[in-house]
């Protein structure tokens, strides 16, 4: 399988990717814990069916020391006991923010309030930005049929 478009070969697409990844770097530099970033990125990518992002974030999390048990349980986090309350709140917000069309009123207040118990305004803004960033990245990759499996940790740093 090959991608429909080489985003690094097209000048306008290359500019877009550089600007877009700059937003991702801002999230990495935020106070949001690295483990939370990877778990949220993985969950959003699972929901959206973005294989290249699932590949990337699973490998990045593993390289950062995340356990296989936690990575395998991200898809079923509600029933898993291996996540902190803060991680659970972040995963819940990520799901609600990703499945926005499924909830007629958007993200429910109780979901926001649970996240706000664990993250200050800087953390919440980073979390919301990450969720939006990952949803956009997923859609770009799915539309362009980016192949998965060859990602190496740190490849885009």
From TrEMBL:
Residue ranges occupied by any Carboxymuconolactone decarboxylase-like domain in the UniProt entry: 16-95
InterPro entries in UniProt: AhpD-like (IPR029032), AhpD_core (IPR004675), CMD-like (IPR003779)
Any GO molecular function: peroxiredoxin activity
Superkingdom field: Bacteria
Keywords linked to the UniProt accession: Oxidoreductase, Peroxidase
Entry-linked NCBIfam families: ahpD_dom
Protein name according to UniProt: Alkylhydroperoxidase
